[in-house]
Amino acid sequence: MERQAERRRETEPVMFSRLLEERYKWQQSEVDRVAALPRVVKYDSEPWVQNAQAHVKYWTTTLLPKRLEKAPIYTFSLLQQLVAPGNKSGKHRHYFEAIFYILEGEGYEIHDNVKYPWEAGDVMCVPTYCIHQHFCTNKDSWARFLFSTPTTFDFAGIGKTEQIELHPQYRYPEDAKLIRNAKGDVIGYETKDGTKFVPGADGDFQKTMDSKKGVVSPDKPRNVYDEYLKEMADQNRWREGIPHVVKGKDCPWEETRMGKIKYLISPYRPSPLLVYDCFIQELPPGGKSGVHRHISEEAHQILSGKGYDIQDGKRYDWDTNDVVFIPVNTVHQHLNADPKKPATFVAFQSRLYKYFGHGGFEHIEDAPK
Question: Where a domain ends, among 168, 201, 236?
Fold first, then answer.
């Protein structure tokens, strides 16, 4: 017995982890933070600023390293962009896809050396890892877009953007030191803190992507590994073969339980986009939509009219050009306050939640007929 007692291990000291309590505390603080963010952002409240692509209004973005969280949205940024008359945006490329709704103007895209014309009412789609640039063909008026990129790619380790060319109106920082090539042409600049910014594609990474495009697969996969080979080959064909502009005039209006809706991008029609839905909704004079709820986040820009949303029992007023945000799992309804004119808005909705196992709608009340 004594020998057994000697072999018996001493009780290890209990070490306490407070991670669970800390997470509960963070969750509550996050609920309070999101609740304090605006559901409606007034159009004139945000200034136009320049970035490497064009002139933009930042409605919200959670792109790292700087977080400009002005609205209760986690999975996508929302901006507005201007391209000058007869001019073009910067040229760039990134892993993540992007969606553009053409608010005003006409022009075309160059995506991987392919031209795609667009006009107001169209949706311009940028599939993953595509070199793209926007061109405004009207020499008397600006092109204006509502656009969005998913913000989750930073956390997935593939948030990289290659700035290949600055837009023609780009103004270098006043305290920047210009960098010139052997011919004397300006090719970039150095900031006061010593950071060098020289636009250009990553040649080594281009070789990697070119290699991926060369992947071939057997017509009939023989095993699971072959299925993965086929998946990459199928994605390559999809990127190259699908149209990058969805023509708004070709999409039909539908009378739904939620109201009159025109679906531009959805998983039920082919498009180059995988993480966005996009639709236009019209509210009749003095009318209202149905009532529903979905886990996925949503954002609208009001195209015409004035009215208000009811979100989880609270009223949020909006007017033409304002932006409306709908956080996750929110019961909501849209109401037109004008008894004589219809109201319309364009909406972006995150489709990521579908892949998380939280897709679809919970319908609560039909729109009046």
Answer: 168
- What DSSP line would sit under 299-364, residue for residue? EEEEEE--EEEEETTEEEEE-TT-EEEE-TT--EEEEE--SSS-EEEEEEEE-HHHHTT--S-EEE
Instruction: Report the distance separating Cα 25 and Cα 23, nearest Å.
Output: 5
Tell me the CA distances in angstroms from 21 to 16, 24, 28, 31, one per residue in order.
11, 5, 11, 16
**DSSP letter assigned to residue 236:** H
Q: Tell me the per-residue pLDDT of 242-275, one tens digit each, with 9 for 90 and over.
A: 889 999 999 999 999 999 999 999 999 888 899 9
Tens-digit pLDDT profile for residues 157-185: 888 889 999 999 898 888 889 999 988 88
Looking at the structure of the chain, the number of domains it has is 2
CATH number of the domain that residue 151 is part of: 2.60.120.10
Using an 8 Å Cβ cutoff, are 39 and 324 in contact? yes
Domain boundary among 168, 203, 219: 168
Residue 319 contacts residue 256 (beta carbons within 8 Å)? no
Helix ranges (DSSP H) in the chain: 2-7, 19-36, 203-213, 224-241, 352-355
Radius of gyration of the chain measured on its C-alpha atoms? 25
Residue 22: inside a domain: no
Phi/psi for 233 (5° steps) reads -65, -40
Answer whether residue 47 is part of any domain: yes
Residue 56 lies in a domain: yes
Structure tokens at 263: 């679906």
Within a domain: residue 203? Answer: no
* Model confidence, pTM: 0.91
Give the separation between CA 210 and CA 8, rounded to whole angstroms.
Answer: 62
Instruction: State both tokens at 313.
Output: 């029992």
- Which residues form the domain of 120? 40-168
